[in-house]
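This section describes the prediction task in plain terms. A model, or a person checking by hand, is given the sequence of a single protein chain and must write out its three-dimensional structure as a string of tokens. No templates, partner chains or ligands are provided. The sample shown here is typical of the held-out split.
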Amino acid sequence: MRSEKDSIGKIEVPNDKYWGAQTQRSLQNFSIGKNALNRMPIEVIYAYAIIKKSAAIVNCELNLLDKEKEKAIVQVADEILEGKLDDHFPLIVWQTGSGTQTHMNVNEVISNRAIDILGGQMGSKDPVHPNDDVNKSQSSNDTFPTAMHISAYTMVQNSLLPSLNYFEKEMQTKADEYVDLMKIGRTHLMDAAPLTLGQEFSGYATKLRNASIAIKQTLPLISELAIGGTAVGTGLNAHPEFAEKMAKEIAKETRLPFVSAPNKFESIACSDAIVGLSGSLKQLTMALIKIINDLRWLSSGPRCGLGEVTLPANEPGSSIMPGKVNPTQCEAMLMVCAQVIGNDLSITLANSQSNFEVNSNRPVMIFNLLQSVELLADGMRNFTDKCLKGIEPNKEVLQSNVDRSLMLATVLNAEIGYDNATKIVKKAHAENKSLKEAALELKILSEEEFDRIVDPKKMIKPQ
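The expected answer:
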């Protein structure tokens, strides 16, 4: 152990760790959900490394930090980004609502590792001070929301959107493949007018495309960074050029279109942009739930359900019923959607705790948001590979259902009127006859007239 000191006093810190006094106090003061699942997401730590690296470069350019310190800070930040120091960031999400402990964890690790590199004594804060050097021109209040935006934008851009695009493309492939495959439509879970399986799947593909558009529309606000606002948005203790230079440096480092937030008071006081992004993820879950539940219905059976499509059999479905296979990929995605919807509520409630100049519930917001992004990205890619690609239509069942449907009578409205068409449907249903048999017995149509009018292939587009 070694002794380190902060404004509260001295505290013993493990000698093989780069963190310092404030990190150690947080470990002792917040014994809540101590397992690794509750740790601050490593993506936030990496985002912080980008902030600290950029700040060192910018402060050096502005003659506020000497070159030797800049070089050491940049080296440590790069080590963090390479994953070499992951074990030195132990803090859980359930801490101060501004994320100050995690912020100081990063400052202390960079400081002590830089001191180590420069041949100094860890814990001495010399020659690289965690506050005066690593944190120069910054505050927890502007860096934590900045880290939230960097980590969120990066994961959405690099993980979520590619998975969503992959899912949507495969869905469109299925729509094109099934473009001429007739089936009966259903409204209110009851038989309705016919369409093709391709048309049905084209609706699914469009829902995914619309969800992608909705997510992308939230990114301009996520691209706005609070950095440079320091404590309350005024930029106290920061150079007048610091905010703009930081946004440019972060954009250069990430290759993403980050900009300086035009109003730092707003960007520090609340996280509305994060709520907006989370809301777009919830919109995506609505599309997924609709698609997946439809597929579950369509594949129900195999003998006593609809059975119009067959899903891949990935594993046995029952410990007691031999040969049973369940739509497990569908069920896994539905649970992902349930989690994302719950996360969205948590994010919404957390953002409601924005009082005066700062939001004090930010760690839980980014914890839930990044989990939602990860679950959706992994879930959609897995579902595409393990389920969607292997879906097969049951052509005989599809055709049989079309042939037996009473709702083909819909096309008769324009020829014989709604009331006469209703008479045919009621007779056919009551006497378990075909529409054609009922129409002929009622002498409403001749066989030739019926065959000319009632052609399902003519009913899938305006006539």
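For orientation: The chain has a mean pLDDT of 96.
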